[in-house]
Amino acid sequence: MLKSTLIIEIGTNSIKSLIARKEGSDFTFQNIPPLYTRLGEGLHKEGLLSPLVIKRNIEAIAKIIEQSPAEEKVIIATQGLRTAKNAREVTDTVRERFNITIRILSAEEEAICSYHAVSDNRNPFVIDIGGGSTELICKTHVHNISCPVGAVFLKEMFPKTFYEFTCIDDFLFCAYKILKGFVKLENHSFIENNLVGIGGTFTAIAMLYKELTVYEESVIDSTEISYDDIKKVLRAVYEATETFVKNDGRSDILPFGIAIALFVMDAVKASQITVSTKGVRHGYVKLFCN
User: Fold this and answer.
1) Out of 1-10, 86-95, 141-150, which region has the weakest mean confidence (pLDDT)?
2) What pTM was computed for the model?
3) Which of 76, 113, 138, 142 has the least CB density, counted as fewest CB within 10 Å?
4) Domain 4-104 has CATH 3.40.718.10
């Protein structure tokens, strides 16, 4: 019987997990539906996780662990726990309850995991938009950039809601003005071709682009979408007004994730991007679970 490993990735907006099994030199992945726990809610203001946020994230971790048949269990975390002043309240609780030490990835480790998640048989420039940070990664890792702003944090920095803007151009103008303070692309020689986008923003864009009502990984993975079509998706979300915002843990932050995607594509003069359903957890398995 193949050994199975549960990988739980605690992100700023959601907890994503998978079960990995090694077959020869390769891995097979069984993806588990994400839980939207919004770890980063209010985090950028004082740098603290609220008791309610901590409680719902611990409960989500417990649910995943209790339902998993995997022999080994690994928990990793990204920007949210990396920056929270009281992150130990989470790590200590998890250690005491589940006897698991959370590995909080450095910005560099997160970027490299993102790259290796999608680097098979290609030389991509990877854009990973998370809830709390955005990583831009190339093959040499010399020019990797980790920006401390993702869809959740950008939303909380805005002076008003997405639907209060008179048009999407005004919304993007405001977003770009904020992002210029965080995403520094000057003096970086990224190649604009072979862009690969990972993270919930890009999979949500692909779902709307393909008019899917349910998540279908096989349909979404490797979707090629142009800059102009991403802007059309943003316009469609805007024209749907607030009826688009569902209690799904992601739709309220989607416009802000799309703004980051467009900002980066503008900066590197990219006309198209390929969407991947892989993420940090997949890259972590390849790098650290051999």
Assistant:
1) 141-150
2) 0.92
3) 142
4) no
